[in-house]
Amino acid sequence: MEPNPSGAEPARASGTVYLVGCGPGDPELLTLRAYRLMQSADVALYDHLVSDEVMALLPAGVRRIYVGKERDRHTMPQEAINQLLVRLAREGNRVLRLKGGDPFIFGRGGEEIDTLAAQGVAFEVVPGITAALGVASYAGIPLTHRDCAQSCLFVTGHRKEDGYEMDWHALTRPRQTVVVYMGLLGLPMLCDGLVAHGMPAETPAAVIQQGTTRDQRVVTGTLGTLPQAVADAMLTPPTLMIIGDVVRLRERLAWFRPDEAGLPASPGAVRA
Q: Distance between CA atoms of 167 and 188, rounded to whole angstroms?
């Protein structure tokens, strides 16, 4: 090592931010790349949708910073998260930005790396299994099926105080599956809106709570019956809603049973 006459501590090289999709909850759905990065990280910023089982895979020495955003309760504004990523990387850290699902599907990952790019911070994106894919699979509901649906539409169910601003024409097209992220709070309004814009009230639909985890619960029904069934079941976020004829296939395709997978018993499926 070269001598340092000044006595000053040498500056660390600039670090890198890794935007990592952690999937819908089951840690075995992580990519190998995600797992390897977790083992060598210095600091991890994580959302509330990153499961405890995934977080448990981080080595003990990794600094953890919770930056989750839930409805009406944001731990840290998005711009502050963006700037924290920049600062931590400039301090020379290997920074993991852990996100539930996939960073680029309703995860604001594009906003975060846009800031990193503008600030000249090195970054890498590691895709994850988005909730629509993982949760539907564990619920036994194919998102496409040649007898039921030739297309699939992902939408966010967040609504404004005065209602939804939805492309109702796109949502109510026949022979497609609609997957709604973050739609539990406005479920009755969403179902009413779909029916009002031409989707039959008898259209099958399901809400899945904490899909792919030991606490997975599935409530099925129709657009007309689902809001009451979900209320009776007292489901809580995180949930995913699936709408379309493919939901009928769950009756014979459901395969995931946490109690049979060596996990604590699940409350199970509730049918309306």
A: 17
Q: What's the one-letter identity of residue 7? A: G
Q: Could you report the per-residue pLDDT of 130-175, keeping only the tens digit for each?
A: 999 999 999 999 999 999 999 999 999 876 555 667 899 999 999 9
Give the burial class of 249: count Cβ atoms within 10 A of its Cβ; 0-12 exposed, 13-18 middle, 19 or more buried: middle
Both tokens of 77, joined, read 């504004």
Per-residue pLDDT band for 100 (boundaries 50, 70, 90) equals very high
Instruction: Pick left, alpha or beta for residue 175 (phi over 0 → left; psi -120 to 50 → alpha; otherwise beta).
Output: left
| DSSP β-ladder status, 204-209 and 239-243 | antiparallel
- Sequence-distant (6+) residues with CB within 8 A of 119 are 86
Q: Which residues are catalytic?
A: 47, 69
> Sign (positive/negative) of CA torsion 246, 247, 250, 252?
negative
User: What's the rounded mean pLDDT across residues 239-261?
Assistant: 91
Cα-Cα end-to-end distance for the chain? 71
Pairing of strands 268-271, 217-222: parallel
Q: Where are the beta strands (DSSP E) in the chain?
A: 16-21, 43-46, 63-66, 69-70, 73-74, 94-99, 122-126, 151-156, 176-181, 204-209, 217-222, 239-243, 268-271
Q: Are 84 and 117 in contact (CB under 8 A)?
A: no
